[in-house]
Amino acid sequence: MTPAPTPTAPQPTTRRRIIHIDMDAFFASVEQRDRPELRGVPVAVGRAKARGVVAAASYEARTFGVKSAMPSTSAARACPDLVFVAPRFDVYRAVSAQIHEIFLRYTDLIEPLSLDEAYLDVTEACDAGATATDIATEIRAAIRAETELTASAGVSFNKFLAKLASDQDKPDGLTVIRPSRALDFVAALPVGRFHGIGPVTEEKMHGLGIETGADLRNRDITFLLEHFGSSAEHYHAISRGIDDRPVQPHRERKSVGAEETFETDLTDLEPAVHELGNIAQKVETRAREKGVVGRTVTVKVKYVDFEQITRQRTLSTSVRDAPDVSRIAASILGEVHPFEKPIRLLGVSLSSLEDDTVSAAQPSFFDLLDAR
Questions:
Q1: What pTM value is reported for the model?
Q2: Given 3.30.565.10, 3.50.50.60, 1.10.150.20, 2.70.180.10, which CATH number is that of 195-238?
Q3: Catalytic one of 31, 111, 117, 284
Q4: What is the DSSP secondary structure assignment for residue 21, as one 8-state letter?
Q5: Which Gene Ontology molecular-function terms are recorded (predicted)?
Q6: Which of 10, 73, 142, 149 is the 20 to 30 Å CA partner of 56?
Q7: Buried b / exposed e along 239-256 (16+ C-beta atoms within 10 A)
């Protein structure tokens, strides 16, 4: 295979200065901050139960291989001294809001990705004489002083590179990727480090001999289209350090939901419907916090062997109240009963969202008739 010509350093179509801020082990760090006896101890935020899942792990726990989304039982086996702490999402949201206020001192172009990370476009501040590196340094210092937490930052001319940079020197690190350095930086990284390339795609790339950014860059667009379809152009661009996406400060929330993993698998419809009622109450609470209602109700079912299915129904009017959501979800679940296998997890979400200033009318007679 003839290697593709070595490209020149990427030239962004717009001159941006982007910072990606990523809090270090955020949930676990908040718990260690608030409970001094946990400092220096391997901590997992989550439930220490048979079906529990680790929501976050401290760096002390990560040295044992404990990581987020790991089953609690596996985490406890990997680290026998692991301390489980129940999550306090109200506290994490409050600290996240405090950090967001720090961001606003420098720019209002902020794109939150989650409670603990965000992109900031500081181009305007840089045009006024500041440097993105200095701004990132000041933000990290303010976070430490005002929250007693640490953050890592990546600075570059686009979002893809800024996110790669923030992960380069964690925890409590700052990495800058300038245009002259971008190609070499991307070329040396394993493709599994690229945001948007998950384990399945990474394994597929490895099977095609693509291990690093350089390997990916050496595959032409025809090859990538053949093997990766609609994602080919994206992979072709990022392997060259190209990403023209703007920071989007008002990203549309696509859905609001909740789910529950059960200690004992569910095999009958009646107890499953009962659990849907509890989940629907959480959905209502979260939707009210976000000020939204939704017209589409989706039910997620995960069986004991981890096979997962989803079913949804779009209504003529928006809903949010738990009794309505629960009734519709129960009707949807009834469509897959009798269950093929025992159920280990159920989830309910609302999508097709709109602001609740648009009246959340009661479901129509026909919606509720269908849900009986």
A1: 0.71
A2: 1.10.150.20
A3: 117
A4: E
A5: damaged DNA binding; DNA-directed DNA polymerase activity; magnesium ion binding
A6: 142
A7: bbbbbeeebeeeeeeeeb
